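> run fold Adenosylcobinamide-GDP ribazoletransferase
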Amino acid sequence: MIRREAELFFNALRFFTRMPVPRWVGHSTDLLNHSARYFALVGWLVGLIGAAVFLVTGLALPLTLAIVLSMAATIRFTGAFHEDGFGDVCDGFGGGWDRIRILAIMKDSRIGAYGAIGLVLMLMAKFLALLEMGEELVPTALLVAHPLSRFASTSLIYALDYAREDQPDEIARAKPLAHRLSRGELTCAAVFGCAPLLLLTGLEAIGVVVLVFVVTWWAARYLRRRIGGYTGDCLGATQQLAELAIYLALNFSWLLSETEDPSNSI
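> ok
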């Protein structure tokens, strides 16, 4: 039992990062299917790496550079997995006029104007959102955002059908993840994704949960209407949108807290 759970976690780690895993870890479609319960736990590692790089580089570098290097570290650790999905979704939904065309564009590995512009804007928005928080708040934001945003994208596997189900296996690149999570697996993912909310105050946690729910609900509704479900790229795009939503929610809640703090009044 413990060995199987360890294999599931390491399969999730191998799929979503460039971190090496032990040689005894097996690889199969079944293991990868059920590893979804640990996607948010992988986010813990991503968040820890981002926070650690930020804290270390912040000792000698300006805040702006520390944030950039932190973002670069998480992108390097994950192989830009989710950013690539976001770019493909921008291209697909920006240039496609129907389901077949959208799926075909997202399958193309080349990046187009919509994808390039979307990625630049997404990275810029995340950078500015982190910058506006202030130096002492960035590590907490990273530790919360990476697990919770990955749970948000994982929930789409539970809620939606796989959009490429009717396409050949060689076209459906994300086919190994194309299944519905059980309630137990979704609960496990929720625990790992939501646990970092304990680092926040009540007001901050409520703001984050509400905005992430709205973004995830909108993404599910939009994807169901446009292509009938999700793809691997759609999961990556949802993670990116949810991550940004968390940073924005924390900016708003922290700003509200400062405004209501009597010590800040004249």
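Residues 2-255 form one domain.
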